[in-house]
Amino acid sequence: MDIVRVRNVVIGNGRPKICVPIVSVTQEEILEDAGELLELPVDIAEWRADWYEDVGDLSKVLDTAKRLRERLGDIPLLFTFRTAKEGGEKSLETEDYVALNKAAAESGFVDMLDVELFTGDREVMSLIEFAHRHQVRVIVSSHDFRKTPSRETILGRLRKMQELGADIPKIAVMPQIKNDVLALLAATVEMSEQYARVPIITMSMAGTGVVSRLAGETFGSAVTYGSAGKQSAPGQVAVEELSRILNLIHDCQENG
Fold first, then answer.
1. Whole-number mean pLDDT of the chain?
2. Are 67 and 60 in contact (CB under 8 A)?
3. Residues 90, 134, 170, 178: which is the catalytic one?
4. What is the pLDDT of residue 122?
């Protein structure tokens, strides 16, 4: 399996990397949150632009991205507009969603994009090709905040993301029962051991699924999402605790 290198972060090798979302509304708050990440064990910062009050003004989006890039130093910046249908704060027409992501990739201020699988195959492939021309990596994602699909469906989505050209396929699902978490973990193991040519990200949300955010190194998920005060999804663990637990699991596995 190939690794994905973004700045000084290697995804797909060793301990899962910690991504922390920035979910503030104003530019001032966004930059303040970014500054706080410098003091925490954070590998990747995700700017959830769907929370930004001025996301409809492209010049302001790019100005904020530029300031974020400066504030974060060498921490990789993941740009995400999570649509309302996948648990985000706002809706966008497909044409506008594609244009926003292309502008972010072209700006030179972001290192990665999160592109939703159900945007459409043609649009996803176009965004991946465009991003790669600008040396930007792409996470292709799917989120279900209502339920957990079957193991076969989860596996099928991850494989499709990979075939479309994702640098990192990602799926997040909501468990209704404990066996839903097992289905997610089983699909993760099968994908990572039998089909994955690239790193993958999987998670089961809420309290029931929190084990999936902690045990990625065991089951095959390369990135986990933690919180620095504000959660972007249910079940995210505070980043300091998350880092401590990931290190403990990593050390136990390294030492047999």
1. 95
2. no
3. 170
4. 97
H, E, C per residue of 53-117: CCCCCHHHHHHHHHHHHHHHCCCCEEEECCEHHHCCCECCCHHHHHHHHHHHHHHCCCCEEEEEH
Sequence-separated (6 or more) residues with CB below 8 Å from residue 112: 6, 44, 76, 77, 78, 79, 136, 137, 138, 139, 167
198-215 tens-digit pLDDT: 999 999 999 999 999 999
> Got the DSSP string for 165-179?
T-SEEEEEE--SSHH
What digits encode the pLDDT tens for the residues 98-118?
999 999 999 999 999 999 999
Q: How far apart are alpha carbons 22 and 206 in whole angstroms?
A: 19
* Closest among 150, 230, 233, 144 to 184, alpha carbons compared: 150
CB-CB neighbours of 126 under 10 Å: 16
Residue 244: enclosing H or E segment and its boundaries?
A: helix 239-254
60 has catalytic annotation: no
* From 143, 160, 230, 250, active-site residue: 143
Residue 132 annotated in active site: no
Residue 224: partners with Cβ closer than 8 Å, 6 or more residues away: 16, 17, 18, 19, 201, 203, 213, 214, 216, 242, 246
Return the beta strands (E) in 153-222 as ranges: 168-173, 201-204
**How far apart, in whole angstroms, are the C-alpha atoms of residue 180 and residue 195?**
21
At 18-44, the pLDDT tens digits run: 999 999 999 999 999 999 999 999 999
